[in-house]
Structures are given as structure tokens and as C-alpha cells.
Amino acid sequence: MYGNKELLIQLLQESKFPYNDLQINDVLIQLDEARSGNEEAMLIVAEIYKQINKFDGYLFWLQSAASRGNTEAQYLLGNCYIDGEIMEEDYEEAFKLFKKAAEAGHADAANNLADMYFNGESVEVDELEAIKWFTFAAKQHVPEAMFTLGIIYEQGIGVEENDEIAYDYYLQAAEQGYQEAQYRMGSIYLDGLLGKEQNIEVAISWFEKAAAAYHVDALFNLGYIYENGIEVVRNGKLALQYYKQASLLGDLQSKINIARIYEKGIDVKKDLEKAKKWRLQAEQQINIVE
């Protein structure tokens, strides 16, 4: 059915963003390749079905490629079983697929497999296996794996605590743009952790990188640093900017701090009406949580 040219042409023409004749011709070339057993073409056709929200077709071609041993298809199909959005959730099947792909060298599948060992999802918790696969993924530059290894070595989970190794993994992940690692690097230098001396300038630099991707805790910390003048010139206006961004992301404490800045007139004009408004927003959020 999902290899039928006429059906696919119809679906492409009726999609939310209809394909033109040239695009359809390109798709049909890939379909012919997929029907002939080309695994890369199967992945391309699968992605096309996904783009037009025909998820049965997406799964059909993923399964076709996965059954032939294609590791990317196995990884993507495993994610579908984990998400449970377009097919029934099945952690056991996901584990099998991730394991096959990881053993064949797929880095992201190795990271997901490690997560399942680490958290005991469809398998007994096995910290050594988790560390083995996280390390494998980290060597292939998967930032999530690097970050998790940072946590493992910082907390001594299945290994001896090692601040130096933990720091190195956090740094590697942060340098690859991983937001949580960038935030962690900022926290390390803000509080002088993992054997590093406090360095607010470096902390701000890392928090700014995470904040650029709307990391709520990084935004809050920047606001806090500038509100309180921690090793910088106090700047209530700049603090407000960061707190307001964090508040839009749902941060309760930022709303309380905004109210305080307006109440006390910290580098801005004192404004009790604005302070009242922000206090009210914070109280409403507390009531919703309760």
C-alpha cells in the first residue's frame, strides 16, 4: 500500500503544503529506489510520509529498513516505541532495537540504550552497562552522553567520584552547545564547584549561552547576579530583563523578584502598582500549583 505510486501522488497533492510536479517526480524516484531495497531511500520515503502526517506510511518504511539491519531506522523506530505517540508504547521492543543499533555502532542508539540500563527501563538497572554505552556514545560526540557521564562521575554512581573527569565531560557537552551542560558550567563557576574557584565572569558567559536557548534557570541566575551585584556592577534594569524572560517560561521566583525590584526601586523607578501586579501573578501561580 505505502509503495503505491498513485496513492503517494494523491497524498502529496492533498497535503497541507502540496508538492509541485518536480518535487513529486523526485519523491517517486526515491520510492522506486526504496521498493528496490535501497535503505537510504526507505528512510527518505519514511520522512516524506511523516512530513505529510501519514504516520502509518512512516512506520511502514522505518520497519522495512530496520528489518534489513539499518541502524538509523532501528534507532528512529525505537524512539517511536518510547514516545508512544504514533504507535503503542513498548519499552521492551525499544530496548531490543536500540541494542541492535548500538552494537552495530549507532551512537545515539547507544546513548538511549545506556539511559534504559541507567534507569531500569524494561531491563534491570545495570550501572556498568550504562556507563559502558554512555562512554561509547560520548566518544562519538553525543553531548547528552557526555553530560550524563558528568553527573555519574560527580556523584560517584557506579564509579568513584572524580571531580576532574566530571568537569571534563560537562565542558565537552557544553562546548557542543548542550544547554543543560552550559547551565551546569555556569553553576560550577558561580558556586566554585568541582575544585574550580568561583569566577563570576566565566559563570555569566556560560549562563548567557544557555539563556540564549531560553534555559529558564540560566535566565534566573543572570537576573539574580545582576540584581544583587555579585562581582558585577548592580543593574536592576538588566536583572528585570532576565527575570521577565524567565517568568514567561513559568518561573515563579522570577515573578517574586520582579515585584521586589519594583517595590524597592532597584536601579529602576519605584512602582508599587507594577510590584502589586507581579505579586498577584506569583500568588495565582502558587494557587494553581496547590
Describe the model:
The chain is mainly α. The protein has a domain at 215-290: Serine Threonine Protein Phosphatase 5, Tetratricopeptide repeat. 73% of the residues lie in helices and 0% in strands. It has helices at 5-14, 21-35, 39-51, 55-67, 71-83, 91-103, 107-119, 127-139, 143-155, 163-175, 179-191, 200-211, 216-228, 236-248, 252-264, 272-289. The longest helix has 18 residues, at 272-289.
Layout of helices and strands, plus pairs?
Layout: H1 5-14, H2 21-35, H3 39-51, H4 55-67, H5 71-83, H6 91-103, H7 107-119, H8 127-139, H9 143-155, H10 163-175, H11 179-191, H12 200-211, H13 216-228, H14 236-248, H15 252-264, H16 272-289
Helix pairs in contact: 2-3, 3-4, 4-5, 5-6, 6-7, 7-8, 8-9, 9-10, 10-11, 11-12, 12-13, 13-14, 13-15, 14-15, 15-16
Keywords:
0% strand; 16 helices; mainly alpha; Serine Threonine Protein Phosphatase 5, Tetratricopeptide repeat; 290 residues; single chain; 73% helix
Query: Percent of residues in beta strands?
Result: under 5%
CATH top level class name of the domain at 215-290: Mainly Alpha
- The structural class is mainly alpha
In total, the number of strands is 0
Instruction: Give the topology string: H per helix, E per strand.
Output: HHHHHHHHHHHHHHHH
CATH-derived architecture of the domain at 215-290: Alpha Horseshoe
**What share of residues is helical?**
over 70%
Give the averaged pLDDT, no decimals.
96
CATH superfamily of the domain at 215-290: Tetratricopeptide repeat domain
